[in-house]
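User: Can you predict the 3D structure for this chain?
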Amino acid sequence: MREFLMVLLTAAIVTYLATTLVRRLALKVGAMTAVRDRDVHTVPIPRLGGVAMLVGFAAAVLVGRELPYHGQLFAGSPQLWGVLAAASIITLLGAIDDVRELDWLTKLAGQVIAGGVMAFFGVQLVSLPIGGVTYLPEPVMVTLTILVVVVSTNAVNFIDGLDGLAAGVVLISASAFFGWCYLVSSSFDPPNVFSLATFISAALIGVCLGFLPHNFHPARLFMGDAGALLLGLLLAAATISMTGQVEPSSSAGIASAATAILLPVLIPVAILALPFLDILLAVLRRTRAGQSPWKPDRGHLHHRMLDIGHSHRRAVILLYLWSGLIAAGTVSFAYLPAWVSAIGIVCLLVLAIALTWRTAPESSDPPPDRARGRGQASGRAS
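Assistant: Here is the predicted structure, written as structure tokens:
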């Protein structure tokens, strides 16, 4: 566990320090989030926070290479270098979009290229835990790998609409996924918790922790597309590298054989359930209104939380609660009796619903003059 802490702390400290420098860079190159009708901030705010996140992740990779156990991930395998290369590509794509907006087709092409680079370096789906273990032709698996990257990156970008929201949700998701990967890997024969999935998850936790102090309301810097796309890609890399490694027929350490079969499929979906739900609702809402599914609007989950009457910070914390409830609740079925998990989830669900529909009498947000209009995590959510 000490090596994981080293990776996490390296990513957190470097990201925290780099964010200050990146903010100056954003101001110099004019990477600013303009104020739009659907936004909550009132003055332009610098973005490009994803560049600092990439620096933090790269530092964690370099440190991990020198560690006794994590260093074995680099021995004869280029996978982590492939993830770093893909992360660099997608961060560059997002950074260019943050400075000079790109059209949707160019961004999609960049996401496909990043996913293809990961697959080229061996980070790809090799099997699907469906009906036991299902192997498909390699071109199909590569296509599915790229699809996972595209969906994950856009899911995080969709949820990126309030200060600290995307970074916090990804932090919760990565923490839940790390816990699951660590416990499952410890039941392998022989046990091996130092996997690609656990390394990426630990580094991702550190990146989010290092960025959040700069990004929580009132934010001084937005992560921009550079950050949202990077976080989505790293989540995808962690889930892709783990999916197919868990043998469903083996229920060692798992509460039941049924959960052993279902969890490898459900966990990756559950950790991004909130962004996925936001995408689904947005597509349905816009299609029903006769608009393009990708036409930006002010109907996202975070907008609705504000419309209910929650303050900025309270809305973000409540969405953290919902994200944690889904992610941790799903993971709990692996190691607790089903009835215990179900009771715990129901209790938390009742609490989450009650808190969501109960608005505070006064906002806890700083006054506009103190917040200086800083009010959205990236200003880029579609």
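Confidence is low (pLDDT under 50) at residues 360-364, 367-382. Residues 318 and 355 are 7 Å apart (CA to CA).
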